[in-house]
Design a protein that fits this description.
The structure is a single chain. This protein has 3 helices and 8 strands. It is of the alpha/beta class and about 200 residues long. The protein has one domain. Strands 1-2-3-6-7-8 form a 6-stranded mixed beta sheet, sandwiched between helices. The protein has a two-stranded antiparallel ribbon with strand order 4-5. Strand 7 and strand 8 form a beta hairpin. The mean pLDDT is about 90. This is NERD domain-containing protein.
Length: about 200
């Protein structure tokens, strides 16, 4: 199969998250970091799903800023070449178990690229893994299997109603934009066929 992020995200959204969530948004930065699928659960918590279509992409994810907490570790005096000096802030970082604002985090990827040793490459032992494979079913052509359940962030806050409305508004705008793109593509096909 020719895997795409959109096909995987759609399968995860419709099969795994739809019954547990009040709103789903693709390619969303609401948490401060990019989520391929941001889901708001019925009890108003965030599930972040990262879609990966290659092993290299999965391994590279550990370098993303969402997996690190950067903090000021001190300052130092720096001499300039003109004889002056200034104070420069030193930063350090430490790994985090869950991205900011996220209750649960999952990776979703094709089953054919998965190897159990890839668990060691994940930036957090709390992240879950969802594997997808093709199946012969016209209603659900991709089957989703939970390889490893995500461990929830115990201290993850619940969203306030106005925050949920903000995310729902974004999902609504994305839906109408998708309809616009679909209509533009249909008109372009019709124009080509008429020519």
């Amino acid at each position: 199969m020719n895997w795409s992020e959109h096909a995987i995200a759609r399968a995860i959204s419709l099969q795994t998250l739809a019954r547990k969530c009040v709103v789903l948004v693709d390619n969303c930065n609401w948490t401060g970091h990019e989520c391929d699928v941001l889901a708001v659960t019925n009890d108003l918590r965030i599930i972040d799903v990262e879609v990966k279509i290659s092993r290299a992409d999965l391994k590279a994810d550990a370098k993303k800023g969402k997996w690190w907490h950067e903090f000021v570790s001190g300052s130092e005096t720096v001499q300039t070449k003109w004889g002056g000096s200034y104070q420069r802030t030193r930063y350090d970082k430490k790994p985090v178990v869950h991205p900011r604002k996220v209750w649960k985090h999952y990776y979703a990827l094709p089953q054919e690229i998965w190897k159990p040793e890839l668990l060691d490459c994940l930036p957090s032992k709390a992240s879950g893994v969802l594997l997808l494979r093709e199946q012969r079913n016209s209603h659900t052509p991709l089957a989703v299997h939970v390889e490893r359940r995500a461990k929830p962030a115990i201290d993850a806050f619940r969203l306030k109603p106005e925050q949920v409305m903000d995310i729902a508004r974004l999902a609504n705008l994305r839906m109408w934009e998708a309809y616009r793109r679909e209509e533009a593509a249909r008109l372009q096909r019709t124009t080509r066929e008429a020519a």
